[in-house]
Design brief:
The complex is a heterodimer.
Chain A: E1 22-23, E2 36-39, E3 45-47, H1 48-81
Chain B: H1 8-29, H2 53-62, H3 66-78, E1 82-85, E2 88-91, H4 93-106, H5 134-153, H6 158-172, H7 175-181, H8 183-193
Antiparallel strand pairs in B: 1-2
Helix pairs in contact in B: 1-3, 1-4, 5-6, 5-8
The chains are: A alpha+beta, B mainly alpha.
Chain lengths: 83, 195
């Protein structure tokens, strides 16, 4: 069985303006759960935990689609062998 | 075609109001966002149908017209805050995140120890009394220390960091500042700049 190994990177987006940039104390800062982070573009406060969930859902969807495509590819290869 | 026009401010306000309505209704029944549908159907003049119950509820609390509510729903669907059609709407993860953010922002109090610094305007020391109590001194020195750490951890170049720190050192050595904040500031200067 072929091993599937894929990672994807999803940026957090402001839920108000879809900007990818937030005001943080320093580069690499990781907000804590429940922290409110300010969008650099529109200035509105985003609930970090909630926008993280949005990103996780998007990432999960992308990886699921990838997995389905890979499985379909493998199945087609297997079916060809039996023809 | 809708002829309703909102200002940008009104649009954002009504989107927030609608999404908060969805969130509250979902939480009232203890459901998950993908397990509950809302009926925002509006009756057609030629059909003998009732308006959707959720449409009626929201209309009562929002005081918006039918056309305005329909417009806001369409905006939310386009921006993926809601999914489905008016008679069977669902709140998306994105819509729920926005509703949470709006709700929590009302209770938000900035954390004083959080090193978020935005310098706006100028600092004028002429004829200004800065303060003479210990609590204010410690607060000022804590802020200065956090600012130094912020500079050190920033993504600026070494030269830029050095320039910023030297400017801050000049500020901290100003006679009016040292007279006000005194020995506590001396310790801070020694720990970051030596000497």
């Amino acid at each position: 069985m072929k091993k599937m190994d894929k990672t994807t990177s999803i940026n957090l987006e402001c839920v108000f303006c879809n900007s990818l940039e937030f005001e943080l104390p320093y580069e690499g800062y990781v907000p804590y759960e429940g922290e409110m982070i300010k969008c650099s573009n529109c200035g509105k406060l985003n609930d970090y935990s909630s926008i993280k969930e949005v990103a996780i859902e998007a990432g999960t969807k992308e990886l699921t689609q990838y997995a389905h495509a890979e499985i379909e590819k493998e199945l087609k290869k297997m079916l060809k062998k039996f023809k | 075609m809708n002829t309703v026009n909102f200002t940008l401010e009104e649009k954002e306000k009504y989107i927030d109001k609608l999404l908060l309505f969805f969130k509250e209704e979902i939480e009232n029944v203890g459901s998950k966002i993908d397990q509950i549908w809302f009926n925002f159907h509006t009756k057609c003049a030629s059909w003998d149908e009732e308006d959707g119950e959720d449409f009626i509820k929201f209309k009562e609390i929002s005081s918006l017209s039918n056309a305005e509510i329909n417009k806001i729903i369409n905006i939310c669907i386009s921006n993926e805050y809601l999914s489905g059609r008016p008679h069977r709407l669902q709140l998306t993860r994105q819509g729920y995140a926005r509703a949470n953010s709006v709700e929590k922002a009302k209770l938000y109090k900035p954390n004083e120890s959080n090193a978020n610094f935005n310098f706006h305007g100028t600092v004028n020391l002429n004829n200004s009394q800065i303060g003479n109590n210990n609590q204010l001194q410690i607060h000022i020195v804590n802020d200065l220390e956090n600012l130094l750490k912020y500079i050190e951890n920033s993504s600026a170049t070494t030269d830029e960091k050095k320039e910023a720190k030297n400017l801050l050192l000049a500020f901290m050595k100003h006679p009016l500042i040292t007279n006000t904040v005194g020995k506590v500031l001396d310790l801070l200067i020694k720990s970051h700049f030596g000497g």
